[in-house]
Specification:
single chain, 138 residues, mainly alpha, 79% helix, elongated
């Protein structure tokens, strides 16, 4: 049990650190890079202290990162229809902080994970359209 407690504490600290670094970073590409550390810590934690919650968080964070990276590459390729705004990253940071809090207090992580995947989904074609229509809120 002591080992799991140590790794969970490290997970919580790293998620908070990622959120802080993302908030402080003005560059979009670097923000996305920093976000990758969120699933990096869940992936590492799984190897030492497996839990289904951490596995679920890892899958959601990895998926969200891949959506963000795809959107960035599309922007770099000249696509300008879907914009990544400061609001997206503010909400992602808020969700990461909430996720850390939930892990720390051994509470359900469903809500912050729903928020993270919804924010990422809003950066896809279908998600952006739903946001445009007012059906998807960040």
């Amino acid at each position: 049990m002591q080992r799991e407690t140590f790794f969970r504490k490290e997970l919580v600290n790293e998620l908070r650190r990622v959120a802080k670094y993302m908030r402080d970073e003005p560059d979009l590409e670097k923000k996305i890079y920093l976000f990758s550390a969120a699933y990096g810590i869940t992936s590492r934690t799984l190897r030492y202290a497996f839990s289904k919650d951490i596995l679920l968080a890892d899958v959601v964070l990895n998926t969200a990162y891949n959506i963000l990276l795809d959107r960035y590459k599309r922007i770099q390729g000249g696509e300008r229809i879907i914009e990544v705004t400061g609001e997206h990253f503010e909400k992602l940071c808020d969700a990461l902080i909430e996720l850390a809090k939930r892990f720390e207090n051994d509470e359900s992580i469903q809500k912050p994970l729903e928020d993270i995947i919804t924010i990422a989904f809003s950066l896809t074609g279908p998600g952006n359209y739903l946001k445009f229509k007012g059906e998807l809120k960040l």
